[in-house]
């Protein structure tokens, strides 16, 4: 006559021996490790947004450094987005070769608009620039537009 499950002495001993090691490890994992673990639902780390350079005090080097690092990350992201747009257009041209001018026109327009926006923000700054240089470029552009109208429209008459 077989014994019911759980009444066997060897099974009870093996289960209690297992629980002797498993229970503390499970408690530590559930109560300490899991609540303090940083989990991201994406594959890259998401940095918190910091004050921009125009919100920093002039004598606060930490704020300026954080704004510069955020600017560099943003520029890198914008450059990658532009690279993806360019790659999409090139892939479309390769795939639709005979009549790619009409089938890939919307991708070319997206890429040209993106590259224009990228150049407006980051172009003509030189190889070694920081957030202050980019901020001054933006400020000078805004002053120009206030005085002369949108860039590229010619100078307005006074």
Tell me about this structure:
The chain is 65% helix and 0% strand. It has 158 residues and is mainly alpha-helical. The protein has two domains: 1-37, no CATH class; 53-148. It is elongated. The model has no long low-confidence stretch (mean pLDDT 88).
Give the strand content. under 5%
> Pairing-aware structural class of the strands and helices?
mainly alpha
Report how far the terminal alpha carbons are from each other: 109 Å
Q: What is the CA-based Rg, rounded?
A: 30 Å
Pfam families: NDUFB10 (PF10249)
Membrane topology: Peripheral membrane protein
Protein name: NADH dehydrogenase [ubiquinone] 1 beta subcomplex subunit 10
Keywords: Electron transport, Membrane, Mitochondrion, Mitochondrion inner membrane, Respiratory chain, Transport
Relevant terms:
65% helix; single chain; 2 domains; elongated; mainly alpha; 5 helices; 158 residues
In short:
With 158 residues, the protein is mostly helical.
Give the secondary structure arrangement, pairings included:
Blueprint: H1 9-36, H2 61-95, H3 100-103, H4 105-122, H5 131-148
Helix pairs in contact: 2-4
Pfam families: NDUFB10
Protein name: NADH dehydrogenase [ubiquinone] 1 beta subcomplex subunit 10
Subcellular location: Mitochondrion inner membrane
């Amino acid at each position: 006559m077989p014994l019911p499950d759980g009444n066997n002495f060897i099974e009870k001993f093996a289960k209690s021996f297992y629980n002797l090691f498993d229970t503390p490890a499970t408690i530590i994992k559930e109560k300490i490790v899991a609540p303090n673990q940083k989990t991201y639902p994406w594959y890259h780390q998401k940095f918190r947004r910091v004050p921009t350079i125009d919100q920093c005090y002039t004598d606060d080097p930490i704020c300026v450094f954080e704004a510069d690092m955020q600017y560099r990350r943003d520029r890198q992201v914008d450059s990658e987005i532009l690279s993806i747009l360019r790659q999409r257009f090139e892939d479309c041209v390769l795939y639709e070769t005979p009549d790619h001018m009409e089938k890939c026109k919307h991708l070319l327009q997206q890429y040209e608009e993106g590259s224009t926006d990228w150049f407006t923000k980051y172009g003509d700054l030189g190889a070694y620039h920081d957030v202050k240089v980019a901020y001054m470029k933006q400020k000078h552009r805004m002053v120009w537009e206030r005085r002369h109208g949108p860039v590229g429209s010619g100078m307005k008459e006074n």
